[in-house]
Each structure stands twice: as structure tokens, then as C-alpha cells.
Specification:
Length: 98
């Protein structure tokens, strides 16, 4: 992805009893963060665990689940810009419920 230093990229959007939460990946390719209330207190939450497990199973890359309605061109354009990619996830991504 075309990330700049210390940029954050949304990887997965979750629906939880506490609301809609987003797990983001730092441009270092390793550090995750989440905007749910639990993650602020413990720096860990079920959303980040969910993403981490899938990343580890996929060789360290999160396998973003996009609908086939998203065209290849959209995906390429989005990969250059975190904001465009986030919109693509909102429009076509699979929302996980945990
Ligand atoms: Zn969380």
C-alpha cells in the first residue's frame, strides 16, 4: 500500500455491542490500533485479536474481504490512498460481527 510514515490504514470494520469500530494498521506493517472503548484501557481488544489471527494465518497480510462489486480499478486506486481505501471498505467490505 502507498502509505507514508506513521500513516494508518483501516483494515477491518466491526459491528459490536459497543458500536461500529475500526481496526487500523500502521505504515510499519505491524502495529494495530482500534477505536473501541476497551482498546484504550488495555491496548488490546477482541477486534485487534481477530485481525491479528487472520494476518498470522495469511503470512502477515490482512486478507481484506471485498465484494466482487468493487472493481479491480477501484481496488488499485484505493490501495494508493488510505482515505479512498477506507471508503471502499465501507462501500464493499465485509463487516465482521464479534
Ligand atoms: Zn476494539
Amino acid at each position: 500500500m502507498g502509505l507514508k510514515m506513521n500513516d494508518w490504514q483501516v483494515l477491518q470494520i466491526f459491528l459490536s455491542e459497543t458500536g461500529v469500530h475500526e481496526v487500523e494498521l500502521n505504515s510499519d506493517g505491524k502495529t494495530l490500533r482500534c477505536n473501541c472503548p476497551g482498546s484504550e484501557r488495555r491496548a488490546q481488544c477482541k477486534h485487534m485479536r481477530f485481525v491479528r489471527v487472520k494476518m498470522n494465518r495469511n503470512g502477515g497480510i490482512y486478507p481484506c474481504d471485498l465484494s466482487t462489486r468493487a472493481s479491480k480499478l477501484d481496488a488499485i486506486a484505493a490501495s494508493q490512498d488510505p482515505k479512498v481505501f477506507r471508503q471502499l471498505l465501507i462501500d464493499y467490505g465485509k463487516i465482521e460481527v464479534v
